[in-house]
Amino acid sequence: MQTPGATAPLDTSVYAARMDRVRAAMASQHIDVVLLSLGLDLPYLTGYHAMPLERLTMLVIPRAGMATMVIPGLEAPRVTEQPGVFELRPWAETENPVEIVARLVGRSSRIAVGDQMWARFLVELLPLVSNASYVRAVDVVGSMRMTKDAAEIAALRAAGAAVDRIASELQAGRIPLVGRTEAEVSADLGARIVAEGHQMVNFAIVAAGENAASPHHTPGARVIRAGELVLCDFGGTMNGYCSDITRCVSLGTPPSDVRDAYDVLHAAQQAAVRAAVVGTPCEEVDRAARRIIADAGFGEYFVHRTGHGIGMDAHEDPYIVEGNRRPLEVGHAFSIEPGIYVPGAWGMRLEDIVVAAAGGPDPLNVVEHDLVVLDV
Ligand code: ZN
Ligand code: ZN
Ligand code: ZN
Questions:
Q1: For 283-298, how does the pLDDT look when each residue is reduced to its tens digit (9 = 90+)?
Q2: Nearest ligand, measured from the Cα of 203
Q3: What is the average per-residue pLDDT within 39-64?
Q4: Measured in angstroms, how far is the CA atom of residue 315 from the centroid of ligand 1?
Q5: Which CATH superfamily is domain 12-145 in?
Q6: Residue 162 and residue 165: Cα distance in Å, rounded?
Q7: What is the model's pTM?
Q8: Residue 314: nearest ligand to its CA?
Q9: Pair 91, 71: CB distance under 8 Å
């Protein structure tokens, strides 16, 4: 779960327009009320990012009438009020906030609940609301968040450019690797993510040699040595929007099998980027990468989906995975990150963020894609 980023709220009109779209989706799906607690739907609609506290914060959006943000009294000063978008209902320490929410929910019969809400609050709410059915709010807000507007794409592009600058330092050999531990390099990348303008580091995976065969390896005390491939996958949140990039560098000339595998990976990644055209189903983009890797004999070593959507969340819809028949739309933003992982030997991944644009796939990461060989 993400902690709050220092994001300046947008103009009230942006939130009002988003709330109108939520109500239209509620009407078409016969949803009476939407309940949003933690997670990023709340800041998307209100500009307020709730900390994951044990005290309840809940935005109650009825299909008609004003939305109410039920919030711990001591958190209320952190909220930038958005007149006409929501009202604040701060609760005192001795009040039961779940009862406040239950009163606002009233006789609603179809309730949409955000994915991120402490189970205890839903468990406490259920007996207070009778004869209601529940659906996921992702069906209402998630599809809106998937389609980025120009300002959101600009924010993703700025975050992407920032991590590109770090990747280019890595590829230029200006981030020391040999003799340092993975954890030291990870901390270095984290500091650079902040120095480049992100408010928050989301992850900085550094995996050397055989460790890179674990796609989400935790950087540790392993010392990086000459002669190996090092995988760096890092990103953060800048002004509310996420970056995410993976590049590998070879510390000295790689063995020919690694070189050949990287060429396959590179071709697969570029094929998937080219396939990410508006109207193409997400699974077809996955297949574009997977086909090339499988044809080269590495199919069993590509153990994850090709990509994930990205926006306010580092991972969100749409997922670039077999079985997702959703066609790409203008404004969808997602990663293209095939990998090849040979247990006990090596691993490699190549990742860019790409936006589906009217003029074709628009990659937000453009730093060198080929395997950069560093002198050691
Ligand atoms: Zn990942
Ligand atoms: Zn990544
Ligand atoms: Zn990613």
A1: 999 999 999 999 999 9
A2: 2
A3: 94
A4: 9
A5: Creatinase/prolidase N-terminal domain (3.40.350.10)
A6: 5
A7: 0.91
A8: 3
A9: yes
